[in-house]
Design the sequence.
């Protein structure tokens, strides 16, 4: 047993010794590196190392949590936490932590991501690739981010495990003109097959096509969503299947289990698989993670649960704890039977959108929202990109967009960027019909 | 926090070939409460403590941080920051604008110390809000409330002999409600923030405000009608004025954004060198002056010195309708030939300080709210908002009303369901012809940076009247 697993177990034992009913401790030794760049140059390179243990303690249905940063004061911290539990209030919905011993898949984390040499080389690969597409005068910026976490989890209820989680992500936005830009991302859990030039090429290609944009017109369009912007839409739907969203009336999926919420071609799942930036072999209760198909051929099949919400909904945990709130790890939309090129070729008149940001709701139960496409916005006519557009906003409804999915591509990309395409996802190009676009007046 | 380790890190950094070095430490005692309806879902309590080193060397910046308080770790962190600064290999060398050294300690006082308030009282204060809501006569389908008590101590030293200590307690509360009437749901959320102690709750009157919100939502469900789209006058309440000031003035005036440093995340600005808008260009009617001011005592965005050790002051961003002064840190100021105006903020020891707003608001005029309304023949009063957003150049924005009313012949009439203004920054601020005299503030958490750094801010202003804008 590794030293840190032993230390984590000791924390659990100490908390139990104080009188806690149930305890989970999760120690994370994290090494994070980031290069930030703009105007084609490196602005800064950042490193942060973190050694912490997150502790959740339950006593008489009271749930209290802490993060231990100072390991000289473990006893005092736990004592304080237990005192807090004693004065806290019972949560009748608390259903205990997951019980039993589990075996976990072996982590496929890439140890090379513990400390990556020549971080800036990846950045310049991407910048050069963008230049090849859009010319030497482009202005590009973005980040390279690497993560390596050693994770040790021990629960008083049985689960104990070790995980290693690695990630590498390059995000580049290239401008060929002041209002002509493209965004590309390259996301992986491993350096194997990590090709930052792919992100640069895509950013540069879109930036080139986006030159000389004209103000778009309001209207109802058929829209092809690039994987990056469709990743943002998955980031709308996936958190809404968290049981907590159902309980708090912040989901379009309330009372829709076993009901049709999308066309038959739509299958969406949560799956923190080995390729994902957010890959993990167990959740925060120590339950093995797995693939959870939540929309199966258009029918809503499950919500995402931890042990407590599962009990409340009379079902089993899906391995999505969140000690307090069940959370999606990595959304996946099944691929379709068309190629990206075929989707474009078949479009008589519509839009191809490549990215978006600033998604906000009027009402998350009803699903009314707007979001602002950025980077390449293209008018497509008779199968060809005819004009670069700007200054449009999607003002629509989350349920309507889901219901109006008409086709998906065979190609899929693992995407994530900043807070806008979150959680990470495996996303195809997707055609949605009848999308409402508005603009400033 | 061990100040000797921080001092040691700086001394060690100065032994290297650096143009500039700083070490910044932060100790954060954070309590978090989360309630669903009147049920306490979880109570969190933690102390986070660590330090960072930032080095400017060879025109490049390196940054490294750790929560391990040893001299050995400090050396590792300095070595890493120095290595990363050198790694940049920039053609365009980064420099920092000159600043005076400062030695000071500043503290935000608490009338009722948050650390002395029992956990039981903290819980019961939050539970009481849910209880009041559940018996207010409106059908509340869900309530989510959260409270953070954040006691932050900082210690900052740099190679220019600055040495600054500070202690800032901050209290934040957020409340979300979903009102269900006649099978329809409407939602509202409010944020409350204060730099200081538990006395914040005496001023906020959260229950009263949220019950007001619940009744407004019920009224909208039962009586609200859509507005007939068209050109009309619009009066924005302080909440709407504040978000517009934050989004379409504060953000585009951040100099790092103007220089492109945030281009792939929070975006750029409609203001850029060689473009149609720059300092001195008209962006609004001359009645419009918008400031950002960290010096407002007990405001959520208050600070006396920023995270580069620069003294805070009021910044006049748009002045009498003209673009006037950008928000700067030392890096952006040097680039644009200016001086830092103390806008550099970081949320923790493990995040770089970047250009941020503090408290952004429209300065008051001399009319009453009633006088603004009585001079409107046909229009809408948008008192608060639900959905909002703005594009990444900060020019095309949209605000959707939560509480809103028709105005006819100078009188407030029936409620309007979700009226929308979708317009440009230039049109919005140019349309303003009158401003009321009472400024109100709302707390907010401003997002920017990668990884994202949500910083506490106030947004606010008085009521403003816009003439002839398109509302739908």
Sequence:
């Amino acid at each position: 047993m590794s030293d840190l697993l032993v230390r984590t177990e000791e924390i659990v034992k100490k908390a139990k010794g104080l009188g806690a009913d149930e305890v989970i401790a999760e120690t994370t030794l994290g090494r994070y590196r980031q290069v930030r760049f703009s105007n084609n140059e490196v602005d800064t390179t950042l490193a942060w190392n973190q050694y912490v243990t997150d502790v959740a303690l339950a006593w008489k249905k009271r749930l209290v949590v802490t993060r231990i940063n100072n390991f000289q004061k473990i006893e005092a911290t736990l004592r304080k936490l237990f005192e807090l539990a004693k004065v806290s209030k019972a949560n009748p919905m608390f259903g205990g932590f997951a019980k039993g011993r589990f075996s976990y898949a072996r982590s496929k984390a890439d140890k090379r991501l513990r400390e990556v040499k020549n971080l800036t080389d990846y950045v310049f690969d991407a910048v050069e690739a963008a230049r090849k597409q859009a010319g030497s005068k482009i202005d590009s910026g973005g980040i390279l981010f690497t993560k390596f976490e050693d994770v040790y989890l021990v629960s008083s209820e049985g689960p104990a495990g070790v995980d290693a989680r690695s990630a590498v992500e390059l995000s580049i936005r290239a401008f060929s003109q002041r209002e002509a830009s493209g965004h590309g991302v390259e996301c992986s859990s491993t350096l194997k097959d990590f090709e930052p030039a792919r992100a640069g090429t895509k950013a540069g290609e879109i930036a080139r096509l986006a030159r000389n944009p004209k103000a778009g017109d309001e209207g109802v369009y058929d829209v092809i969503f690039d994987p990056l912007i469709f990743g943002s839409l998955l980031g709308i739907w996936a958190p809404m299947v968290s049981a907590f969203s159902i309980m708090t009336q912040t989901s379009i999926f309330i009372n829709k289990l076993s009901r049709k919420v999308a066309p038959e071609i739509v299958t969406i799942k949560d799956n923190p698989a080995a390729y994902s930036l957010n890959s993990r072999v167990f959740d925060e209760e120590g339950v093995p993670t797995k693939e959870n198909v939540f929309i199966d051929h258009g029918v809503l099949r499950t919500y995402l649960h931890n042990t407590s919400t599962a009990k409340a909904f009379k079902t089993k945990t899906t391995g999505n704890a969140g000690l307090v709130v069940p959370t999606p790890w990595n959304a996946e939309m099944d691929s379709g039977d068309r190629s990206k090129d075929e989707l474009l070729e078949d479009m008589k008149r519509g839009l191809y959108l490549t990215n978006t940001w600033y998604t906000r709701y009027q009402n998350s139960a009803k699903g009314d929202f707007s979001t602002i496409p950025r980077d390449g916005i293209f008018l497509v006519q008779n199968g060809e990109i005819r004009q670069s557009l700007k200054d449009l906003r999607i003002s629509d409804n989350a349920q309507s967009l889901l219901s109006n999915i008409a086709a998906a591509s065979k190609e899929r990309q693992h995407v994530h960027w900043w807070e806008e395409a979150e959680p990470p996802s495996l996303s195809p190009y997707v055609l949605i019909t009848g999308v409402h676009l508005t603009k400033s007046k | 926090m061990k100040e000797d380790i921080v001092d040691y890190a700086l001394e060690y950094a100065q032994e290297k070939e650096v143009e500039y070095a700083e070490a910044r430490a932060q100790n954060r005692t954070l309590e978090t409460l989360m309630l669903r309806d009147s049920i306490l879902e979880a109570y969190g309590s933690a102390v986070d403590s660590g330090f960072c080193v930032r080095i400017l060397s060879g025109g490049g910046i390196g940054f490294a941080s750790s929560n391990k308080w040893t001299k050995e770790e400090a050396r590792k962190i300095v070595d890493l920051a120095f290595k990363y600064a050198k790694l940049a290999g920039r053609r365009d060398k980064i420099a920092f604008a000159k600043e005076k050294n400062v030695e000071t300690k500043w503290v935000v006082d608490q009338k009722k110390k948050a650390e002395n308030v029992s956990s039981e009282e903290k819980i019961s204060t939050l539970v009481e809000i849910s209880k009041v809501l559940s018996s207010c006569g409106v059908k509340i389908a869900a309530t989510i409330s959260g409270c953070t008590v954040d006691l932050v101590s900082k210690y900052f030293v740099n190679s220019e002999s600055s040495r600054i200590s500070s202690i800032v307690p901050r209290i934040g509360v957020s409340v979300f409600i979903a009102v269900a009437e006649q099978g329809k749901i409407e939602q509202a959320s409010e944020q409350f923030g204060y730099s200081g102690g538990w006395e914040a709750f005496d001023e906020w009157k959260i229950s009263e405000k949220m019950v007001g919100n619940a009744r407004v939502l019920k009224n909208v469900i039962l009586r609200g009608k859509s507005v007939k789209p068209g050109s009309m006058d619009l009066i924005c309440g302080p909440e709407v004025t504040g978000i517009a000031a934050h989004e379409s003035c504060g953000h585009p005036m951040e100099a790092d954004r103007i220089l492109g440093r945030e281009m792939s995340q929070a975006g750029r600005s409609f203001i850029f060198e060689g473009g149609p808008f720059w300092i001195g260009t008209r962006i609004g009617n001359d009645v419009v002056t918008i400031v950002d001011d960290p010096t407002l005592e007990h405001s959520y965005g208050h600070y006396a010195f920023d995270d580069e050790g620069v003294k805070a002051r009021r910044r006049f961003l748009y002045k009498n309708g003209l673009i006037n002064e950008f928000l700067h840190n030392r890096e952006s100021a040097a680039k644009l030939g200016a001086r830092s105006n103390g806008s550099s903020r970081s949320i923790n020891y493990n995040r770089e300080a970047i250009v941020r707003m503090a408290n952004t608001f429209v300065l008051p005029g001399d009319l009453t709210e009633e006088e603004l309304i009585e001079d409107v023949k046909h229009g809408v009063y948008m008192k608060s908002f639900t959905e909002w957003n703005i594009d990444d150049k900060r020019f095309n924005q949209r605000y959707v009303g939560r509480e809103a009313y028709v105005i006819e012949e100078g009188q407030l009439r029936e409620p309007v369901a979700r009226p929308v203004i979708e317009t440009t920054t230039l049109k919005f601020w140019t349309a303003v012809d009158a401003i009321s005299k009472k400024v109100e503030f709302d707390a907010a958490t401003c997002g920017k940076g990668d990884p994202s750094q949500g910083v506490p801010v106030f947004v606010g202003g008085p009521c403003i009247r816009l003439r002839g804008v398109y509302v739908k």
Q: What stands out?
A: The mean pLDDT of chain B is 97. Chain B is about 20% helix and 40% strand. The first strand of chain B starts at residue 20 and ends at 36.
